[in-house]
Amino acid sequence: MEANEHEHVIEVTDLRRVYGGGFEAVRGIDFSVRRGEIFALLGTNGAGKTSTVELLEGLAAPAGGRVRVLGHDPYTERAAVRPRTGVMLQEGGFPSELTVAETARMWAGCVSGARPVPDVLGLVGLEAKAGVRVKQLSGGQRRRLDLALALLGDPEVLFLDEPTTGLDAEGRRDTWELVSALRDGGTTVVLTTHYLEEAENLADRLAIMHDGRIAVTGTPAEVTATEPSRITFELPHGYFVGDLPPLGELGVSDHLVDGRTVRLRTRELQRAATGLLVWAQTAGVELRRLDVRSASLEEAFLGIAKDVTAGTGAAKEYAA
Ligand SMILES: Nc1ncnc2c1ncn2[C@@H]1O[C@H](COP(=O)(O)OP(=O)(O)OP(=O)(O)O)[C@@H](O)[C@H]1O
């Protein structure tokens, strides 16, 4: 197939994974990832993210369903897939007595057409640590070495399992910049993360998993739009909630009054905010401490986890 930006480099259909004791960790999931996009898998602890990524990496055979990476089955056609993918595992597990450069050279020996080691260490900001033993690296520096090793083969598809766990704020930002630059260069990236901010900043599309299933997929904006927006303000002195325009007519789904503070939730943010501001202007009053905001990914995440736990959430998918 000719490489183009609409090509699905990963296709997952009704994928299932069952562990030895019969526990079904992945319970029939579907998603696809296009060439050159960053796709994030989010979810609560034990949701099945790592179990899923391991199936994409060809480390285990699915109990059911189908997975294709670059058009191949990553488990049975490992030889066709592995040289074109890079894998950053949660635990690198290198011999700790080797230096950073020795570790990378050892790894490069297993990769056909490996990039020069200094280039890859430079990419992840470890060039100054080339002569340092792995056991002397900080946790964050080890994560960067993990990433460098995944990049040695200049992969078309990169799997990153919690790439920024243990990194400080600066290290995290540097990794985001690097991953974005790789995407801009055409690399397809699948990452798991616990940091919602990371998915919001980095992902072109994401899926939120819960209990082995995908609860929602879409762009960060689409997923965020599943939760209502919020408007908060203080009632002007001398006014009561009943003096406001009828809230239902402004598209407000529910409201809460706490002292003089009014909190509204709406799925029609522009209509509700405009209605309130026009009312305030006409009444000649100021809405003090006015705060108007769309839901964050965190609110969507918590809302979805709650919905699914309560059994009210059917899987939602947005147009790609
Ligand atoms: N080797 C195993 N044998 C049996 N059960 C397992 C095994 N590995 C994982 N599980 C179970 O499968 C479920 C999914 O685990 P998985 O590691 O895929 O979740 P995750 O979403 O990556 O979690 P986390 O965010 O905590 O890393 C969990 O309930 C876990 O206990």
Automatic annotation (TrEMBL):
Key word ATP-binding present: yes
Organism of this sequence: Streptomyces calvus
Cellular component GO terms held in the UniProt record: plasma membrane
CDD domains in the record: ABC_DR_subfamily_A (cd03230)
Keyword terms of this UniProt record: Antibiotic resistance, ATP-binding, Nucleotide-binding, Transport
GO biological process terms on file: response to antibiotic
Pfam hit, one: ABC_tran
Localization: Cell membrane
Molecular function per GO: ATP binding; ATP hydrolysis activity
InterPro entries, per database record: AAA+_ATPase (IPR003593), ABC_transporter-like_ATP-bd (IPR003439), ABC_transporter-like_CS (IPR017871), ABC_transporter_ATP-binding (IPR050763), P-loop_NTPase (IPR027417)
Membrane protein topology class: Peripheral membrane protein
Protein name as catalogued: Multidrug ABC transporter ATP-binding protein
